[in-house]
Amino acid sequence: MSAGIQDKPAAQAVGNTCDWQIRRQKVSERGKFLLETAQWSDCQFVVGTEPHQQLFSVHKLFLAMSSPVFEAMFFGGMPEKDEPIPILDVQPEAFKALLEYIYTDEINLQSFDQACELCYVAKKYMIPHVVEECTKYLWGDLFPKNACRAYEFARLFEEPVLMDKCLRIICSETEAVLREGSFEDIEVSTLETILDQEELSINSELELFEAVQRWAAAECSRRGVDIKSMRSVLGSAIGKIRLLTLTPAEFAEGPALSPLLTKDESFAILMNISSKTATKVTLPESFSTCSVPRKRPAGEDKHIIQLPGEAREGQKYYCLRNISPQPHGYNTSNLDCSVSFTVDRNICVLGVQVPTQICPPPPPFRYDGPQLHESYTEVIYAHLLDSDGSRLTYTHVTSRVSYASLVEITFDRPVYIQRNKIYRVGVVLNKMGRYPMGTGDRRIVCGSVLFNFCVGPDIDSVREGIIKSIVFTY
Q: What is the structure's pLDDT at 451?
C-alpha cells in the first residue's frame, strides 16, 4: 500500500474516547466522527490506482442506507468478502466526498473537476441527490474554457439539459471556445458536433479551419504519429467545414497551404470559390458544397460582443431606477439583494450600479445624516443568472467609495441576453453598515429598450431596490 493510506487499528484507537457521543448533538456530527476515526468500521475499500491509492474504512449500514448498489453489495445474495474491496475507476478524493455526504449530508463542491468526478461516483452507486447537486454546480460554472468538456461529460452521463446549455455556450461564444487551449483536447465526436451547427459566433469559416488544424496536430501528438497524418485523424470532420464561404484570398493564404489538403483538392476548391460556373472542376466528395455562411446565434450583433483585450464599441446606457424610500436597513453580516427582469430587445449587460452606505455607523448606529467627505472600503460580489439559476457572469469588487453615492460594478465578462427571457441580477454586500432600502420602478424605458423588473415568481422586497441601475449596451 502507498503512503498516506488510512491505518484502521490506529484510527480506531483514536475513536475510543469516552463518552464521545455526548459532545455531538447532531447525527451528522456523530457520523463525521465515525467516518474520521473508523470507530466500529466493518468494511474497507481500496480506491484509485497506484501510486495514489487510498484505503477507506467504512460502515456497511451507513452505505447501504444511502445506495441500493451498496445494499446489494453488502446484504444481497452475493455479499462481498471481508478483504478490502478494490475500486479502480474512481478518484480517492471523489470517493471521500461521497462518503462525507453519506455520513453527514454535506456536499462541498469547490471546482468544476471535482463536481465531474463526484457526479461520476454518485451515478455509479445510484445516489441521485448528489448527481443533481453536481449538475446544478456545473450549470453555474459554465464558461467557454470548460463548455466542451462539460458537454462531453453531460453526453456520457445522459444529462440532456446540461448538454443543451453547454451547446448554447459553444454556439454563442464560439470564438472564445476555439481560442481555449482545452479545445485541442476535445473528442472528435465533439468536434464534429460543433462543425454540424448551423449557428456559430464566428466571423469567418477560416477560424474553424485553423482550430480544426490545431486539434488535428494535437491528436497526432497524442497518438504518437507523424504530423502528416493530420488528415486521417480528422475522419469526416474536414468535410464539415464550409470552405466555399471563404474568399479566394482567404483560402489561398490559409487552407490552400495547409497539410490537411492535397494540391488537387486545393485547386478544385479554389476554382469553385473563384467561379460559380466552374462545373468542369469537380469538388472532392468528402468536402462540403455549402457556400452559405453560418448564421450567428439569433439576435446576436457582433459589434457589441466584447472579447478579452478588445475595445467595446457602442454607447453605454444606464437603466436607472427610481426607488421608493423605505426605512434604512443595517447590514450586520452579508446583505443579499437581487431582482429579476426582462427586456424587449437583445442587449449586452455590462454591470450594475448599487448605492453605498448612507453614513458612517457610529455607535449605537443612529443616522446622523450623510457625510460626503468621508469614504470607506466596500466589498461587493455581483452576478447575473439566467432563468434556470445558472450563473452567466459575476465579479468580486473591493474598492474605496464615498458614503451616500453610487458605485458601478463591471462584470468580469459582459453577457449578451435575449429579449423576453427572464434574468436575475444580484449583489452581496459584505460590509457592516446602513444601506438605503426601497422598491424600484417596475417598468423603465432606457434608450429604446423596455425593462420590466420583478417578473415571474419574484417576490417584492425592499432589498431589490439595492439594484439601482443596470449598465448595458446594444
A: 95
Structural domains in the chain plus CATH codes: 8-140 (3.30.710.10), 160-274 (1.25.40.420), 304-473 (2.60.120.820)
With vertex at residue 309, the alpha carbon angle to CA 428 and CA 198, rounded to the nearest 5 degrees, is 90
Cβ atoms of 198 and 162 within 8 Å: the answer is: no
Residues 210, 226: Cα–Cα separation, whole Å: 19
Q: What is the pLDDT of residues 196-206, one digit of tens each?
A: 999 999 989 99
Cα separations (Å) of 76 from 70, 71, 81, 191, 368?
9, 7, 12, 44, 72
| Contact between residue 383 and residue 394 where contact means Cβ atoms under 8 Å apart | yes
Q: How far apart are alpha carbons 29 and 100 in whole angstroms?
A: 11
pLDDT tens-digit profile of 28-85?
A: 889 999 999 988 999 999 999 888 899 999 999 999 999 999 999 898 876 556 789 9
Q: How many DSSP H helices and E strands does the chain contain?
A: 15, 15
- φ, ψ for residue 53 (rounded to 5)? -65, 145
What phi, psi does 260 have (nearest 5°)?
Answer: -70, -20
Does the pTM surpass 0.90? The reply is: no
User: How many Å is the maximal CA-CA distance in the chain?
Assistant: 93
pLDDT of 97 over the 90 cut: yes
pLDDT of residue 190: 94
